[in-house]
């Protein structure tokens, strides 16, 4: 069974622990067989809809929430987890709070790469690569100040949501995982969530 997660920057195809990633473009290398997908990139909607092998999971997802405009990728993860804090650290960082099967709301922040690029719009002297750093001390140089300023703000925001288990996924998960104790890191989390939806709705298993 092939699963597809299409974001704003990259598209990922997953087939039993084999993950293929490519940049989003109008010429996507789709599988030659049936696959299930979720897509947050509206500019590619028509491309998916024209592909007879593509099955959209969006109509099969329904979560309890008051949040307006919750992205389909976030809906998939929230549908999968009854309780906890879900953090997807990708092009953007999304943070969602689930409590007893209900989505209580969430936050959206720039991803770490977006933060890095934004610093350069202020000054070319702020060129750096954000990396894990000690957020319990006052930084003593510019690189530490940038990394600490960004990472600490993200970590404290997540911790402000309470003492729930944290489910962390996305390309920058390995940077953020160092700052939490009760945490599960899983780069395949969205695909596990998609498989659960397919199983529940008897779509292909």
Précis, in short:
The protein is of the alpha/beta class and 205 residues long. 28% of the residues lie in helices and 28% in strands. The chain has 6 helices and 11 strands.
Give the topology, please.
Blueprint: E1 2-6, E2 10-15, E3 18-23, E4 35-39, H1 45-50, E5 54-56, E6 64-65, H2 72-80, E7 84-89, E8 92-99, E9 102-110, H3 112-120, H4 142-159, E10 166-169, H5 173-176, E11 183-185, H6 189-200
Parallel strand pairs: 1-4, 4-5, 6-9, 7-10, 10-11
Antiparallel strand pairs: 1-2, 2-3, 7-8, 8-9
Describe this structure in words.
- The chain has 205 residues and is α/β, with parallel strands linked by helices.
- It folds into two domains: 2-56, Nucleotidyltransferase, domain 5, CATH 3.30.420.40; 67-187, Nucleotidyltransferase, domain 5.
- The protein contains six helices and eleven strands.
- The chain has helices spanning 45-50, 72-80, 112-120, 142-159, 173-176, 189-200; strands at residues 2-6, 10-15, 18-23, 35-39, 54-56, 64-65, 84-89, 92-99, 102-110, 166-169, 183-185.
- The chain has a six-stranded mixed beta sheet with strand order 6-9-8-7-10-11. Strands 3-2-1-4-5 form a five-stranded mixed beta sheet.
- Helix 2 crosses helix 6.
As for the CATH topology of the largest domain, it is: Nucleotidyltransferase, domain 5
Q: Sketch the topology as an H/E string, one letter per element.
A: EEEEHEEHEEEHHEHEH
Rounded to an integer in angstroms, the radius of gyration calculated over CA atoms is 18 Å
Report how far apart the termini are. Answer: 9 Å
Q: What is the CATH class of the largest domain?
A: Alpha Beta
Number of DSSP strands?
11
Q: Percent helix among the residues?
A: 25-40%
Helix count equals 6
Structural class: alpha/beta
List the uncertain runs: none
What is the typical, i.e. mean, pLDDT?
92
CATH superfamily label of the largest domain: ATPase, nucleotide binding domain
Instruction: Report the principal-axis shape.
Output: globular
Total tally of structural domains: 2
**Widest beta sheet: strand line-up:** 6-9-8-7-10-11
Largest sheet: 6 strands, mixed
Gross CATH architecture of the largest domain: 2-Layer Sandwich
């Amino acid at each position: 069974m092939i699963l597809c997660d299409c974001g704003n920057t990259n598209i990922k195809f997953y087939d039993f622990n084999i993950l293929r990633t490519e940049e989003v473009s109008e010429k996507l290398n789709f599988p030659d067989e049936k696959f299930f997908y979720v897509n947050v990139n509206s500019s590619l909607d028509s491309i998916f809809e024209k592909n007879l092998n593509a099955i959209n999971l969006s109509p099969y997802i329904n979560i309890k929430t008051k949040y307006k405009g919750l992205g389909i990728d976030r809906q998939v993860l929230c549908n999968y987890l009854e309780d906890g804090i879900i953090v997807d650290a990708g092009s953007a960082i999304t943070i969602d709070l689930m409590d007893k099967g209900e989505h209580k709301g969430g936050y959206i922040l720039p991803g770490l790469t977006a933060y890095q690029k934004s610093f350069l719009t202020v000054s070319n002297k702020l060129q750096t690569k954000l990396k894990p750093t000690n957020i319990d001390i006052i930084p003593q140089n510019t690189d530490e100040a940038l990394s600490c300023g960004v990472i600490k703000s993200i970590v404290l925001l997540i911790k402000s949501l309470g003492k729930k288990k944290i489910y962390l996924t996305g390309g920058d998960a390995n940077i953020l995982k160092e700052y939490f104790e009760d945490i599960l890191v899983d780069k395949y989390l969205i695909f596990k969530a998609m498989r659960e939806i397919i199983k529940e709705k008897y779509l292909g298993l």
